[in-house]
Fold this sequence. Notes:
Helix 9 links the parallel strand 4 and strand 5. It is built from 25 helices and 22 strands. InterPro entries: Phosphoketolase, THDP-binding, Transketo_C/PFOR_II, Xul5P/Fru6P_PKetolase, Xul5P/Fru6P_PKetolase_C, Xul5P/Fru6P_PKetolase_CS, Xul5P/Fru6P_PKetolase_N.
Amino acid sequence: xxxxxxxxTRLEASVIPExxxxxxxxxxxxxxxxxxxxxxxxxxxxLQEPLQVKHLKKRLLGHWGASPGLSFxxxxxxxxxxxxxxxxxxxxxxxxxxxxxxAPVYLEGMYSEVYPDVSQDALGIKHLFRQFSFPGGIGSHxxxxxxxxxxxxGELGYSLSHATGAIFDNPDLISVVAIGDGEAETGPLATSWxxxxxxxxxxxxxxxxxxxxxxxxxxxxxxxxxxxxxxxEALFIGxxxxxxxxxxxxxxxxxxxxxAAMESCIADIKRLQKQARxxxxxxxxxxxxxxxxxxxxxxxxxxxDGNKVxxxxxxxxxxxxxxxxxxxxxxxxEQWLRSYRPEELFDQEGRLSPSLQALAPQGYRRMSANLHxxxxxxxxxxxxxxxxxxxxxxxxxxxxxxMNTRPLGAFLRDIMQMNNSNFRVFGPDENTSNKLDAIYxxxxxxxxxxxxxxxxxxxxxxxxxxxxxxxxxxxxQGWLEGYLLTGRHGFFATYEAFVHVxxxxxxxxxxxLAIAEKLSWRAPIASxxxxxxxxxxxxxxxxFTHQDPGFLDLVVNKSPSVxxxxxxxxxxxxxxxxxxxxxxxxxxxxxxxxxxxxxQYLDMDSAIAHCIKGLGIWxxxxxxxxxxxxxxxxGCGDIPTKEALAATxxxxxxxxxxxxxxxNVVDLFRLTxxxxxxxxxxxxxxxxxFTTDKPIIxxxxxxxxxxxxxxxRRNNHPNLHVRGYVEHGNINTPLELAIANCIDRFxxxxxxxxxVPGLKVRGAHAKxxxxxxxxxxxxxxHQHGVDAPEINQWQWPFAPVTD
Length: 803
């Protein structure tokens, strides 16, 4: 393997005075001692007596391999925070290396401030050790319970995008992000190296990535650790970074090298920012980064039972696994722990020596106490225009059409203008497609790379743009999460079929929020708001690959304390819903609404009332007032609502005495019992609306079984018949796609005939007529390539109900 050294990227060691060097190393030894202690010890925390089996945890959990490297980075950043009064946070991509972050957080005192029982003494250290990876304690990642953490790292790949989102509109903040070499093999992380191209040096802070090449994953080498130096350097230069290499295993030499690299990188960051801010010209910069090559499990046991451990994959988790039953392993463990010389680091009461305490930054300059890592502490509420000003004019219900998302684009445009330092819109090259392009009137797409002359002709690009577009949903989601977690607000619009790209990221953020809500010291952050558009029922032209409403099923899996799903049927309901979501905190709001022209149902006042209720009877579409209905027809989603209304009209023409109650559902979680979700409807209210014994024909936007899952405990569930997407589709007309999945007006009308007892026999002629109409529509579509005019131009045929 070619290990040629490029002297331009391998800096000479910094000259740190000997006393400072010794203190720095001692602080790092204290971190390593605590990190190892978290994995092994439940008693005798300072080894003030010989180590015995009774002092050990029964179950040994945790990851040692990355921990020494993480604390090494943390301690060196502390040095520069003190020297230069820096404003910085720390993100650990190798989440299982949490002991390497928890240790310095504890030593600088913030952990004890948040958790007073984990005090700065021997008893506190014992509590710290015992709670790590222990029932009732904390996890082995940098979980929400850890002060200073905005990134758990339980799932790999998101650290760099989180770090970047954190520094958008934070001009003085530096995100120091440790990226594991195993993590660097993931798709999301590989793509997020492009984040540097989106950092505006005038209004944004800076990211300092530290790629940690410790050589191994769980039990395999890592790719980036085995390629030649020149190739590795070229890779990152190609990504647009300037790499500084810090390599070795001798701690004292490595301290000098790391100090030099950190000083150089911080100086580069300050220089680039100063040049841009003095000139007023925002250009793409080549930002510095560090490649730290150190042994996996650094400072741990070299060999165990004749097998290499330090510097090998065996150091990944617990290096000594037989300490309970093998006296030699117990001896090795004690030797390892005592190698850090804890008696030099802590006094008899277990307090860190005053000279070492002085190495930690103070107050909010501690990375664990930085207010940006508890974003709700610095969050400013959005200034919002009155969403009513963007309303669609609706006279008689269901007699006019409009593009649902275009007024929302105007609403977002004005929100951006009123909040030009704490609100951004994110999307994967789809905002124009999704009819949100009004936002470009006040903010272009951020673009810091080269321009071509033709880019001025509709390209909507600007170095000052606040709209972030990149064809990587992973990176966008990571940016948005980092932006929200540090106290700002955002909006993410994407195609329904491909929101699945971020399924795992959504899962992780939902878990983070669910835990964070239980921590009184974490201030609430702004909700994450998704607009899911280009929906399944209008993907007839793109085909089967673009037809998938299953993201809703995933959302329902997560904690009800943080998940919300809304399916507004028209413009005014969408505007009311968006306003509510943008004001909310600590939630994940999923809004499903198509971008194309759709029939409009409610004026603004009616829409607001309807959205507040979350679901309700539409009197103008019902004819059962004062009587029990024969059937309850339900629409949930824009197209399903239209088809359910059209079916209602067919039935009222065919059976004038049939009593139909029409219900529309906006807030999907209203279908659940109130004991299951904060938005759940009481059983009494549900029974009043949906009856206890009448057929319910429920036309749903997504997969039909989701409705059964939400409503299975309801009294009338046996009479609930749900239609939805069932994986039938290709290149179809809209009505043909609806027919293929039985959500069309004819199928629904036939369902009513089949399920209403009085219609099963006498409805035979009507059923045949509906079948004939359905066949005629299919024939028309196959002949002309579009749906018949009476389908596309359908309107509610009955006069509105008047008082």
